[in-house]
Design a protein that fits this description.
Layout (H helix, E strand, L loop, with lengths): L1 H27 L3 H20 L5 H27 L5 H26 L1
Helix pairs in contact: 1-2, 1-4, 2-3, 3-4
Length: 115
């Protein structure tokens, strides 16, 4: 069940990041931080998907750790975009909550693999 939720949520998050990237580029003409956000935010789901086709527990754990690192980087870019006033409080809170939820799911999944 957790695996399905992680897959679904990481893909939905990637789509939110893509829409946010388009918004930042079209409405704010912000290209540098938004591109970094796009890369890290979509990489989470890509690594989760790749992890599900891993050949070993070590391989899936590695992919999930990479996804976790990307989620942390994504939160960093979201914070910078918020603090530089490209994202208002409501926009930031909404997507950052999703990033935090993904981090919790990834952490729980990694712990499950280790047990």
């Amino acid at each position: 069940m957790r695996s399905y939720a992680l897959n679904k949520k990481s893909k939905a998050f990637a789509l939110r990041i893509i829409h946010l990237y388009k918004y930042l580029v079209e409405e704010h003409k912000e290209y540098v931080m938004s591109k970094q956000l796009l890369r890290s935010g979509t990489s989470i789901g890509a690594n989760v998907a790749e992890g599900h086709f891993s050949q070993s527990e070590a391989d899936i754990k590695s992919k999930f750790y990479i996804a976790l690192k990307e989620a942390g980087e994504t939160q960093y870019w979201l914070e910078l975009l918020h603090e530089s006033e490209y994202l208002n409080e409501q926009e930031f809170d909404s997507i950052n909550e999703d990033a935090t939820e993904l981090i919790k799911l990834l952490t729980a999944s990694i712990k499950t693999i280790l047990s």
